[in-house]
Amino acid sequence: MLKYSKEIFDILSRGGFICSNSVRQGIKRMYEAIEDDYQTYREYYEGIGFTLESGNGYYYFTRTESRVEIDAKLDRFVRWIDRLDFLKTFNSVFGPGFTFRSSNILEQLASDIELKDKAQHLYTEKLKLEEIVDKLIDDLEKIGFIELENELDGTWKVTSAFHYIEELIDSLIVSEEVKDEVFE
């Protein structure tokens, strides 16, 4: 039996990530276990319909999906493009290893009109700026892109899983023929 196979499945099957730079020691141990025997873990999970994939310092699951699931995933992806744009506007080096507090974002929102405008377009419901930041941090944590590094001062650390969304967006190539078209 593979070490941590149930714990790994519990995290990855819900769309999470196992990251090399996690602040949680248990996650780091799982990452190292997978890294030490990647092919065996990959074969094990393929047997139950999941494909273990590796990224730049993280692991995640993929699987074959129906058209409806793909459409829903694309909708979520579009929202993440806006969130990444917001985070890179907040700080251009926002990425794996970066640390921040919600107060840092709120302070910058108070003086940056462009950032404030981007924040107000992150969610469809009308929210106060503080609620937007809290919701964004909650979304980032749920997906595994950030972890609470210091509970006392509210410091968050961006995990290596953040590479996933950066690489996905970087891989988009818009051809010259369709760049001016409006998509429905």
Mean pLDDT: 89
Q: Please state roughly what percent of the residues sit in beta strands, choosing from under 5%, 5-15%, 15-25%, 25-35%, 35-45% or over 45%.
A: 5-15%
Please state the structural category: mainly alpha
**Nearest-angstrom radius of gyration?**
18 Å
Percentage of residues in helical conformation: 40-55%
| Terminal-residue CA separation | 49 Å
Question: What spatial form do the alpha-carbon principal axes imply?
Answer: globular
Order of helices and strands: HEHHEEHEHHHEEH
Give a quick account of the main beta sheet: strands, pairing sense, barrel closure. Answer: 3 strands, antiparallel
Which regions are unreliable across 5 or more consecutive residues at pLDDT < 50? none
> Helix tally?
8
Number of strands: 6
List keywords for this structure.
single chain, 184 residues, mainly alpha, three-stranded antiparallel β-sheet, 8 helices
Walkthrough of the structure:
The protein is mainly alpha-helical and 184 residues long. 52% of the residues lie in helices and 12% in strands. The chain contains eight helices and six strands. The chain has helices at 5-12, 25-36, 38-46, 67-90, 102-111, 113-120, 129-143, 162-170; strands spanning 18-19, 51-54, 58-62, 99-100, 146-150, 155-158. The strands form two sheets. A three-stranded antiparallel sheet has the order 1-3-2. Strands 4-6-5 form a three-stranded antiparallel sheet. Strand 2 and strand 3 (58-62) form a beta hairpin. The termini are far apart. The model has no long low-confidence stretch (mean pLDDT 89).
